[in-house]
User: Fold this.
Amino acid sequence: MLGNGIIKGLAETARNFFGSYVDKERLTTVQFPEERLPQIEGTRDFPFLVYDGDDWEKGLRCVSCHICEKECPPKCIFIEKSKDKKPDAVGKLQFYPVRFDIDVSVCMSCQICVEVCPFDAIKMDVEFELSSDDRFGGLLHHKDKLAKSNEYYHKIHPTEAAAVDAALAEDREKEKEKQKQAAAAAAAAAAAKAAAAANPPPAAETNTDASSKEETK
Ligand code: SF4
Ligand code: SF4
Assistant:
């Protein structure tokens, strides 16, 4: 019947309106900002940079590879890579971003930067109240504002953050194992070299044999 959908919609609205006086479940609105609905885990607004440990500058996972900057569709990420390397949170020497800015007035919350980052260094935040009275720089967020701890990441996206932690722990374990094997191989090579130096091949004898053969001829 023509208009059936409209009637159903109006009936649902009426049920919620009158029902809200007797049933809290029917109260579909809240008095924002005093009241807030709990955010679902999949909520995403703008990206932030994850750091490990207590020192945000030292612990930033970002190694300034520029991949997110290149892939960002509206080009609102601006990175300047360091010339030197410094130890990251696990002590590995890495490049780091001297500058990492995101213009959130341009960002369209597509999450592509998160998907392409090979280091799990950038994730989506749930913070959306970012309005500012500084129309020229207030929405250009610098790395000190973008940096948020791994604990914060766990708080806003617990399931995802736990999976990332497990994958990172596995990678770090593999890296440690690789370093251990490389160190063992280097030690074995050094020992073999030292043994060869301590017991040189009997080169002189060989030469004498050669000269006697020469003399016999
Ligand atoms: S956030 Fe990730 S993809 Fe972007 S520069 Fe840093 S490490 Fe590379
Ligand atoms: S969420 Fe999308 S638009 Fe925003 S910085 Fe990341 S890639 Fe760019």
In short: The helical segments are 4-19, 56-59, 67-71, 112-116, 143-146, 150-156, 158-198, 203-216. The first helix runs from residue 4 to 19. The pocket of iron/sulfur cluster (ligand 1) is lined by residues 62-68, 79, 117, 119, 121-122 (CB under 6 Å).
